Every structure is written in structure tokens, then in C-alpha cells.
Amino acid sequence: MAAMKAQELEAKQGFTYQVEDNVAVLTFDLPGESVNTLSPDVGEAFAALLGRAEKDPAVKAVVFTSGKKDSFVAGAKIDFLQTIKTATDATAASRQGQQGFDRLDAFPKPVVAAIHGACLGGGLEWALACDYRIATDSPKTTLGLPEVQLGLIPGAGGTQRLPALIGVQAALDLILTGKNVKPSKAKKLGLVDEVVPAPILRAVAVRRARELSEGMLKVERPRGQGLKAVAQQGKKGLGGLLAGLANKELWAEVALEDNPVGRKILFDQARKQLRKKTRGKYPAPERALEAIRIGVESGHAAGLEAEARFFGELVVSDVSKRLVEVFFATTALKKENGTSNPDVKPREVKKVGVLGGGLMGGGIAYVSSALQGVPVRVKDKDDAGVGRALKQVQGIYDERVKKRSLTWREAAAKMALVTGGTGYEGFKNADVVIEAVFEDLALKHRIIGEVEAVTHADCIFASNTSSIPITELAKGSRRPAQVIGMHYFSPVNKMPLLEIITHKGTADWVTATCVEVGKKQGKTVIVVNDGPGFYTSRILAPYMNEAAHLLADGADIAALDKALVEFGFPVGPITLLDEVGIDVAQKVGPIMEAAFGKRMAAPKALEKVVAEGRLGRKNKKGFYTYDGKKKKEVDVSVYELLPHGKNRKQLDSREIAERCALQMVNEAVRCLGEGILRSARDGDVGAIFGLGFPPFLGGPFRYADSLGPAELLRRLEHYQDKYGERFTPAPYLVDMVKAGKTFYPR
Description:
- The strands form three sheets. Strands 13-12-11-14-15-16-17-18 form an eight-stranded mixed sheet, sandwiched between helices. Strands 1-2-3-5-7-10 form a six-stranded mixed sheet, sandwiched between helices.
- It is globular.
- The chain is an alpha/beta fold.
């Protein structure tokens, strides 16, 4: 009866058991899911299979692999973690996972993990408990412990097994950043023992399992063992000893990891760097660091206990809840086509045209060729502009080759997809043309006409404008249903958001096609309705305006930026102004004021700054110095161009941050109330991925709910009384408070 129950559980969780050449091959293929994930039921089923393999005298070794096409195990089932209500329960779940992998670690027969596809989080912890790891050389195969990105730490032994395997420094780099590594890097680190082509993965895994069981294969892992590693090299003779002594990486381990003083330096420096980066807003990396330290200094059992305790605390923390909510929001967006009709299908895009060879145009050409994988034709007004665009794309590919994320052959093949010219040659077969030219309506109307004259009838015209309404652009088109906004963020190859803007006449198939293009370009895509500034530019404007008002009030530039960085933004508003271009911000101001009136009027504080020709980083003349020194400092001469001159005031940092942040939040609420946004979820994703709104706060709407809409209203009214109509609360917020509602269901 018990055996039957176990087999039912195994089948329900998608496990199969086959014996091949005295090796039990356990294949995990979770039914109804695109990826394998971990849960208590999965663990129970796997344990039952291991028990079966242990009792079977014909089985000498085990291979664990996945039945999914491009996924090994993608980590723990996040839905399960959300059902946990207390830190005690979360700690217990962590201990259960640890115990399961401890049993696998101590299993009396060799176990080989055969990895193809994503091996992340709990999936990697699973593999770490095996005796031998083989990964495929496929670009689909990635390995990592990304838990910190969800405000968590590895909770099933990862903080202990990874440092023991690859060394503390290398483990810290992976665990504290949550970054993934490709198979070649994993092999170099010692994370996997072998990398093979995908078609022979199973055969090689079975052979290695048998060789391990017969004693024919002895695993030697020099990384992560300090002095023992040098000694191990010495066993190979004089040549091996000299190689060990010459290995700088091994000696770095000896110096920092194999003695108490070195370990203290290592952990102190890591903690110092962490605090500088997280500013205490993200507790997970610090907890992970402490769990690793305890394990290194006090042993495996103490490290596991610390890991379980910290994991329990973090699962129920507000920071983790917000980050998990962001994860679910982006996951949901990946499944949507951007329209109200889920049955609308995108059309195939075989070629992309790009108008404008500046930073944006070059970046769009890169993501279209590198990630979307289609031919791209770039047009600029002269050869120099085309050359700059091609040079920019080539530079990004060169950087990827340098970092070994692409081979030079792969980069050359991708670069060959990008061509350019000063005319419309090559645009005839373009399915989507994206313009990234100067923000001038007349110019854009002229370009629309030129494009429509040379492209086929179903070609989509997409504008990268950040402020001009798409409705106005469509008025210059003979095919207005095929005009849409595709607002990218700079630098395009790094910024994750794509804001797609539809006007009332945009065809659903056009929206769905552009959403699909964005996804293939690796973007998180939100779709918003048309209006001046759309969503992201519109909520950024009052935020930046308030920073300018603070300068007019006599705020210190460095203190102003620091206050917003302490709040959680990646950079302060004045640094951002220098990066975007002071002149660009100045041009957007009148557009926003014309649309929204006095409350969106930019203060006069920056007029003299612009008049003196200070554009920011692009001409190395702005609010900060750009003299090549590593540390950027305020250019104190700029104060003479501001209302208070050199007489700066000491303003309260909390009020500085709140004045700017609440302007952004209030405008986001206006966008939701006016129908620019389709949901609070899209507003949160857009603000986080496009503007750097602090992820640990969950976005403007999650932040509003955490304050409470009534409290948000009270604070806005306070600033309205103090500073005037620019802080007038959004009508939608007032209505919500009257109705006792929140932006997300309670």
C-alpha cells in the first residue's frame, strides 16, 4: 500500500525511474508547467525514489536530470513561499529542504546531476548536494542562486555548500549579487565538473555515474580548499606543486580564507561594500554574508542553522513581499499581449528599420539584432551619423566578447545583421520602423510620410518619442492604425523597460506585434494609453521639477542627491539631470506645462545654468565635474548661477526625499485615475524598471498602500499648504480615501 502511494506521488510530481546499465535515471518533469520548481511534495517524491534506488541491488549509481526542454530546476515554487505566514513556519520549511539535501549528500551511491537549461536557486542547491555535476554547453543553460533578488537567501544549504565547493570569495560573488553564470564560467569556478553538448548529456551522465561507482573516476576539485588545494597539486609531482604555488587564485584563498585574520578581512570588506551598495534597505545580502561567515568559522551545522533562521525572517519581511510582488507582476506581463483581447496574435517581424543613429537608435539596433535576432537597417541624415550608430553597436558586441558572454564569431554573425545608409534603401521589406530622431512634431510628420512611401502596407511605424502624444503623430500618417509609441530608455542595451503607447485608433494586432518585439528584445513591456509624457516621462517631470525647486530654495546639490539615494533611488535627481542632459529636460518642460498647467511648470532656477551652455555629461559641463577623476564632485561654480548663489541652506533630508518622491507618486495616481495606466501593477513595474523607483518599496502604488491612501493624502495636503498647487492631491486619491479603498486588494 505504501509503495503504491509513493508511486502515485512520484507520478503526480512528474518523476520517472529507469535503470540503464546499473544506473537509475531519475527524470523530473513537473506536469502542466513549463519549468520544474521545488515544493515539499516534490522533495517527498524524490526522497521516495532515492529510497527505491538505494534498496535496488542492481542500481550502483543515480543520475538526476530534467524532462523539460530548456529547464533543469528553476528554484522553489514562489507560490508556496507566499502561503507561509510566520517566520517559524518559513524556518521549518528551510530545515526540511536542508535535511532532504543532506540525505542526498550522504546517499551511499554516487549521484550525478545532468543539467540542461535553468539551474537556479533550489535547483542549484539540489545539484550541489550531488557528487558530480555535468552541464550542457547550450546558451539556455545557466546556473545561479538568485534568491537575494527576491529579498531572500538560499534556504536549502546553498550558503554552506557553495563556499565549500568553489571558495568563499567566488561564492560571495554569486550569492550576494544573485547573478547567473554560463556553463563555461561554471566549469572554471568548479561549480560543474564537466560541460558537454546537449545531445550527449544523458549518455555521458550515465557513463560518469557508473565510473564513479566502479572507482574508475576520481573527482579532484582544487578550488575552494585553500592550502589543501596546493597540497593536492603537489601530489601530482614537482610540476603539479609548482603549478599550485604559481596559481594566484589559490594563494588568494590561502591568504584570505585559510586563516582567521584573512577571513576577518574578507568578511569585513564584503560587509562594508554591501552596506555601501544596499544602504541597509535590502537585508537579504547581509544575512547571506552572515550565514556564510558562521558556516566557515563554526562549521556546517551552525551555518545551516543560521541559514534556516535568516531565511525564516526574510520570507515574512516587507522587503521580500514587495520584491516577490514585483516578480509576479513581471511574470504576468510576459504572458500578456498588451490588448484587452487575449486572442489577438502578433504578426511575424522579419526585419526592423531604425531612423536616427544616435545613442537611442544605436541601442535599438543592438537589441533588435542581438536579442530579437533579425536584420536591422539604420538610416541617418549623413554618413557620420550612420558610422556612429554602427560603431556603437559594434562597441556593445566587443564588450560582450571581452566579458566572454559571446564568442567573436557569434558577435560577428550578429553584427552582420546591422547595416546602414543615408537613404531608405533596405526599408522596403521592414515590418517595423522605429524612429529615434529629434523631438520635433513637424520633422516626425515628414519622416512618417517618407517611410510610408517606401514600406509595404502592413509596416508598423513606431516612435521612440518620450513626450509628443502619439495621437498627434498619427495625424501625419495615411495608416494611423499602424502608428504606435515604443519608448525605450537609455542605455537601451541595459535598461529593462519598454513603454508602449497606444492611441485610440491603434490596431490591436499592431500593439500585440510590438509587445512581442519588445519581449524578444529582452524587455519588460508595459502598455499605456496616449497622453502628454505618457506615463514614465509624465511622473518623472514633477519629480525633477521638485528637485529644481529645492535648488531654488538653496539646497546643497550633493545633499539633495544623497537624500534621494538614501530613499532608495539608484542616483539622485541632479546626477540624473546631468546624465539625461540639462537641455533635454528644459525642452520637455514647456510641453508638460502646456498640457497640465501651472502645477507642472518648471521653476526658473535653471535658466541661467542652461544659458551658460551647461548640458551635463555630454559636454562635460553640468552640476558635477567631469575631469576624468574617479570620484565625481559638485562643480561649485554652478552655485553662482542659482538663485541663492553660494549661500546654501541646510534642508531636512527626509523632507527633501519626500517632496520629490511624493510628487512622483501623486502623478502616478493621476495617471491611473485618468486611464493613462491600465492598472496599478503596470504603474509599479514602469516606475521601478524605467525610473529606478526603489524596488524594496514595490513601486508608487505599493508604497501608497504601505503608507495608507489617507496618510498619503494628508502628507500631500501638508505640502500643498506649504508650497502651493503643485502638491494638489490627485482627484482619484481623494475619491479612494472617501471610499476607503486601496490600490491593491487587501
